[in-house]
TrEMBL record:
<feature type="domain" description="N-acetyltransferase">
    <location>
        <begin position="6"/>
        <end position="170"/>
    </location>
</feature>
<protein>
    <recommendedName>
        <fullName>N-acetyltransferase domain-containing protein</fullName>
    </recommendedName>
</protein>
<dbReference type="GO" id="GO:0016747">
    <property type="term" value="F:acyltransferase activity, transferring groups other than amino-acyl groups"/>
</dbReference>
<dbReference type="InterPro" id="IPR000182">
    <property type="entry name" value="GNAT_dom"/>
</dbReference>
<dbReference type="Pfam" id="PF13302">
    <property type="entry name" value="Acetyltransf_3"/>
</dbReference>
<dbReference type="InterPro" id="IPR016181">
    <property type="entry name" value="Acyl_CoA_acyltransferase"/>
</dbReference>
Length: 174
């Protein structure tokens, strides 16, 4: 998938059905801290109450300008320490292994430091067993810093997490 065909745009409530296709997939959400959505109404409430007011939550779309239906999402959430922000990304299973996540991550770091005032570091926590997400982050220029042992509970299991970072002075990768 050429990176030029992946775009990011703000979500809209009309995106709920496209989002339901991947947000309800237990394989897609296996490494997520949240469970698959089972109702359109619950996902619509999440879009309305969390996504739309969020400072940086974008739909990952294919097809150039204008985007089309979302095939994933990327968020960058400032922490209490305003110089840092936490990144999360999810992509529909049909688009795994095609460079979509990597392209979305590249577009994210190219925009987010200008969009979120004071943010100098974007970090991502990735389950050590999620090799595909680790590869996508590395291809987008993120640096693996450490493994945080027994860092968090995900779906009832204590998990080791790899921490990755991209700082505002890191070079953007084409």
């Amino acid at each position: 998938m050429p990176a030029g065909t992946v775009t990011l745009r703000p979500f809209d409530l009309a995106d709920v059905d496209a989002m339901m296709a991947w947000a309800s997939d237990p394989v897609v959400t296996a490494f997520m801290t949240w469970d698959p959505y089972t109702s359109r109404e619950a996902l619509l409430a999440f879009l309305r109450d969390t996504v739309l007011p969020h400072p940086w939550f974008r739909a990952v779309c294919l097809g150039g300008a204008g985007g089309g239906a979302p095939v994933g999402a990327v968020s960058v959430t400032p922490t209490d320490d305003r110089c840092r922000a936490e990144l999360g990304i999810v992509v529909a299973r049909a688009h795994w292994g095609k460079g979509v996540a990597t392209a979305a991550l590249k577009r994210t770091v190219a925009a987010v430091f200008g969009d979120l005032e004071g943010v100098e570091r974007v970090e991502a926590l990735v389950d050590v067993e999620n090799a595909a997400s680790q590869r996508a982050l590395e291809k987008a220029g993120f640096q693996r810093e450490a493994v945080l042992r027994n860092y968090c509970l995900v779906k009832g299991r204590l998990r080791d997490m790899a921490i990755y970072s991209f700082i505002s002075t890191d070079p953007l990768i084409d």
